[in-house]
Amino acid sequence: FQLTFPLRTNYMYAKVKKSLPEMYAFSICMWIKSNASPGMGTPFSYAVPGQANELVLIEWGNNPMEILINDKVAKLPFVINDGKWHHICVTWTTRDGVWEAYQDGTQTGNGENLAPYHPIKPQGVLVLGQEQDTLGGGFDATQAFVGELAHFNVWDRKLSPGEVYGLATCSSKALAGNVISWAEANIDIYGG
């Protein structure tokens, strides 16, 4: 199944039923399709008490796609708003804040010093399709995701390049996230 966000609203979103645990590393992967411009908006946002931007993926206005961790930002070299399905993955480890970005199974960028030594905090709210300014709310239509989203998975470790390639090529051994896996039972839909 997939989620479709046909237009920019401040009320259409999906909420993942469980929170993230404390994480010292993560891999977040998804299939995404959008031709929205300018910017496809916010595929997902994770807010915790006291920090609305704990973990956010956003492409806003004419900016490149960015990942935010605890309000720190890395620009991601994704080119995906061509109306075709793309597989994207972002991995990160708290040690030195090392991150990697993969598009369609190939690493397209990497860096370090992104929120180093800051573990991802637990007890938050994970929303697909909107950017949270407050815990579980404060949505702004200009930051809403427009497009389609599927196979959103979260791991509490860094996937290897081979594992990412397997996901992007739909190999028979493709993994499901050990923190959050893509299943209809795991999300609640709001607003349409």
From TrEMBL:
**What's noted on cofactor binding?**
Binds 2 calcium ions per subunit.
Gene Ontology molecular function: metal ion binding
A family per Pfam: Pentaxin
Q: Which UniProt keywords apply?
A: Calcium, Disulfide bond, Glycoprotein, Metal-binding
* SMART domains assigned: PTX
SUPFAM superfamilies reported for this sequence: Concanavalin A-like lectins/glucanases
Where does it live in the cell?
A: Secreted
Origin superkingdom: Eukaryota
Domain named Pentraxin (PTX): which ranges? 1-192
Essential cofactor(s): Ca(2+)
> CDD domains annotated for this entry?
PTX
Q: Which GO terms describe its biological process?
A: axonogenesis involved in innervation
Annotated Gene Ontology cellular components are: extracellular region
Q: What is the similarity comment for this entry?
A: Belongs to the pentraxin family.
Its subunit composition reads: Homopentamer. Pentaxin (or pentraxin) have a discoid arrangement of 5 non-covalently bound subunits.
Name-wise, this protein is: Pentraxin family member
